[in-house]
């Protein structure tokens, strides 16, 4: 714990995810109940009046840890001396779109914000990319910030991880906390692979492999996977807006574990920069892996057995990420 305020940036601060997220950060759910926070809130110029309303509400929450709020439309103000950057601001998809359809609309934002991180933020800054397509935006942000270690960048697949956990929990009739070590491999897209081969379910005090607990292999290899892959689209179809409450909760889970570590014996999923040394995943992609986190540093969980079923799905999502990367690089000329 530090008595100095932690400088935390949230972009897209006038948007719907931020509206569910800011309160949790400012009240201590993410960085600890003793950690003072300075919140930097970035949005685009036309959204400044809305952002002013968000600032008023934050003030009216009268939160003891919230020492300062800076609302701005200027990157040089927003990215100054950051400890943490949560990059949400970008366009969400609408019904009928794939997340990669947002590539050309959004990726330029992450090139610009990567450069701003490079120029203004602390070199130790931890960067979480949420805006879609999250993996490729994260890759572009990391490439645009050459003075910041690529290890400091991650993208959000914790929402998919939580979705997978919850689906298994509901099937087994246990709370989601009794399901651990699901894995999301690859892209935060409909090619992601939610893998339960290493997942265990706590059933009446003993840890049971997921396949034995669920007792429905066809579901685990079929509808379970497609439900998780398509969950974002299902929420958009129903709400006419993309997920926000569950996305904000996942951002908090991701950041809290990045800050304080994963629980003993558990791993989580996050999109991280692949160096080509794990599970045959090509290098120069932001790919979701199972990770352990300690001392604010993630390490890929090594040595998990991968069968042919899993291998094919891991390769398919890597292929999509390579295509997205090549489109983004060509479009931006990075
Ligand atoms: P929203 O439209 O409600 O809010 C987005 C905000 O970003 C708006 O206020 C907009 O003005 C702002 N913005 C746009 N360009 C900006 C820029 N250059 N700098 C700063 N702010 C900018 O959208 P939302 O529902 O909050 O979703 C935001 C993004 O998060 C979308 O891309 C969405 O697809 C994505 N998302 C990702 C996940 C995930 O799991 N990775 C989950 C949910 C949503
Ligand atoms: C989600 O997974 O809910 C978000 O990425 C929003 C979307 O476009 O699906």
TrEMBL record:
GO terms classed as biological process: malate metabolic process; tricarboxylic acid cycle
InterPro entries in the cross-refs: L-lactate/malate_DH (IPR001557), Lactate/malate_DH_C (IPR022383), Lactate/malate_DH_N (IPR001236), Lactate_DH/Glyco_Ohase_4_C (IPR015955), Malate_DH_AS (IPR001252), Malate_DH_NAD-dep_euk (IPR011274), Malate_DH_type2 (IPR010945), NAD(P)-bd_dom_sf (IPR036291)
Binding site for substrate: 93, 99, 132, 163
Recorded superkingdom: Eukaryota
Residues spanning the membrane: none
Pfam families attached to this UniProt entry: Ldh_1_C (PF02866), Ldh_1_N (PF00056)
Keywords: NAD, Oxidoreductase, Tricarboxylic acid cycle
Catalytic activity of the protein: (S)-2-hydroxyglutarate + NAD(+) = 2-oxoglutarate + NADH + H(+); (S)-malate + NAD(+) = oxaloacetate + NADH + H(+)
Classification via CDD domains: MDH_cytoplasmic_cytosolic
EC number, UniProt record: 1.1.1.37
Stretches assigned to the Lactate/malate dehydrogenase N-terminal domain: 7-153
Active site residues of this protein: 188 (proton acceptor)
All copies of domain Lactate/malate dehydrogenase C-terminal, residue ranges: 157-331
PROSITE patterns, sorted: MDH
Family: Belongs to the LDH/MDH superfamily. MDH type 2 family.
PANTHER family: MALATE DEHYDROGENASE
Function: Catalyzes the reduction of aromatic alpha-keto acids in the presence of NADH. Plays essential roles in the malate-aspartate shuttle and the tricarboxylic acid cycle, important in mitochondrial NADH supply for oxidative phosphorylation. Catalyzes the reduction of 2-oxoglutarate to 2-hydroxyglutarate, leading to elevated reactive oxygen species (ROS).
Protein name from the UniProt record: Malate dehydrogenase
Species assigned in the record: Periophthalmus magnuspinnatus
């Amino acid at each position: 714990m530090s008595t100095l305020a932690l400088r935390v940036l949230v972009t897209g601060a006038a948007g719907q995810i931020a509206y569910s997220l800011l309160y949790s950060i400012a009240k201590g759910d993410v960085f600890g109940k003793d950690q003072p926070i300075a919140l930097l809130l970035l949005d685009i110029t036309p959204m400044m009046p809305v952002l002013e309303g968000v600032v008023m509400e934050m003030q009216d929450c009268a939160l003891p840890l919230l020492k300062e709020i800076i609302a701005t439309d200027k990157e040089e103000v927003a990215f100054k001396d950051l400890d943490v950057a949560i990059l949400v601001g970008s366009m969400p998809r609408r019904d009928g779109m794939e997340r990669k359809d947002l590539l050309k609309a959004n990726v330029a934002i992450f090139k610009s914000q990567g450069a701003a991180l490079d120029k203004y933020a602390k070199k130790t800054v931890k960067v979480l990319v949420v805006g879609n397509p999250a993996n490729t935006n994260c890759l572009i942000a990391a490439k645009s910030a050459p003075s910041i270690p690529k290890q400091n960048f991650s993208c959000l697949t914790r929402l998919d991880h939580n979705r997978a956990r919850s689906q298994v929990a509901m099937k087994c009739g246990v709370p989601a906390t009794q399901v651990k070590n699901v894995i999301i491999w690859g892209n935060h897209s409909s090619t992601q692979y939610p893998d339960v081969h290493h997942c265990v379910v706590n059933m009446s005090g003993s840890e049971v492999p997921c396949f034995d607990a669920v007792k429905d292999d066809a579901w685990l290899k079929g509808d379970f996977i497609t439900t998780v892959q398509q969950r974002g689209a299902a929420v958009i179809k129903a709400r006419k807006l993309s997920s926000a409450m569950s996305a904000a909760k996942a951002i908090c889970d991701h950041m809290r574990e990045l800050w304080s570590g994963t629980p003993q014996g558990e791993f989580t999923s996050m999109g991280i920069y692949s160096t080509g040394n794990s599970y045959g995943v090509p290098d120069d992609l932001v790919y979701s892996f199972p990770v352990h986190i300690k001392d604010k540093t993630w390490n890929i969980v090594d040595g998990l057995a991968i069968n042919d079923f899993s291998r094919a799905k891991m390769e398919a999502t890597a292929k999509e990420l390579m295509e997205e990367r090549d489109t983004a690089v060509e479009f931006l000329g990075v």
